[in-house]
Structures are given as structure tokens and as C-alpha cells.
Specification:
By secondary structure, this protein is of the alpha+beta class. It has one domain. The chain is 15% helix and 13% strand. Strands 1-2-3-4 form a 4-stranded antiparallel sheet. β3 and β4 form a beta hairpin.
């Protein structure tokens, strides 16, 4: 089952391809809209959009662990994301969910006089 991250942002492929170290795993692209599941991947064009995930991996869809197109996360890549793409994960997405608190133990009923 695919996993949703806490945050991702869509960018045009042409912007992502500006990174000098960009490589594309086009074989991981989603099938064409009119193709059956399991069909050959679609061709990614300059006008398509890909998703930059909170972990700096780029996917062809909103799921953080499916259709991974680029996963060479380096300091240069993260700098490019911040400086050129102006990508920032919002504070609400950085926060981890609070650990569940244990249920309070039942209190005995007060004694009747």
C-alpha cells in the first residue's frame, strides 16, 4: 500500500532538470492515463509536473514511496531545492505527532456514608 508523506510540492520538470546532478529514472514513471496498470511508463516531458517530497526525493505522484524518479539526495541537491526552487517544509509538516498518552487508571468511587 502506498504511503503518503506529510508534505510534497509539485514542480515543472523543466525546473527540476536545471539541477546539474539531475538524473531521471524514467522507468518508474506512472503509466499513461489511458494505459492499463502495469503498462509501459509514460514519457516525462518538460511540461509535466513531478513532486518534491519532504525527504527531497522526487516522485511521479503524491505518494512518497511510489514512482520514484530521483533519489540522489545530496547536500548540493538540498541546496538547489532551498535556493533555486525555494522549497521549504512547513512547520506543521515537520512536527511529529505527539505520542499517545496512556489512559488514566479508573478512580475508585468515593465511599458512601
Amino acid at each position: 500500500m502506498p504511503n503518503m508523506g506529510r508534505y510534497c510540492k509539485a514542480y515543472p520538470v523543466r525546473s527540476l532538470r536545471e539541477f546539474a546532478g539531475w538524473t531521471e529514472n524514467a522507468a518508474n514513471a506512472r503509466p499513461a492515463d489511458d494505459a492499463a496498470e502495469g503498462s509501459a511508463p509514460r514519457t516525462i516531458t518538460e511540461d509535466d509536473f513531478l513532486y518534491l517530497q519532504e525527504n527531497y526525493v522526487v516522485t511521479d505522484g503524491i505518494f512518497i514511496d511510489e514512482n520514484v524518479i530521483f533519489d540522489s539526495v545530496t547536500p548540493e541537491w538540498t541546496d538547489f531545492c532551498h535556493q533555486t526552487l525555494e522549497f521549504e517544509v512547513p512547520e506543521y509538516a515537520k512536527a511529529t505527532a505527539a505520542a499517545p498518552q496512556p489512559a488514566a487508571a479508573p478512580q475508585p468511587a468515593p465511599a458512601q456514608s
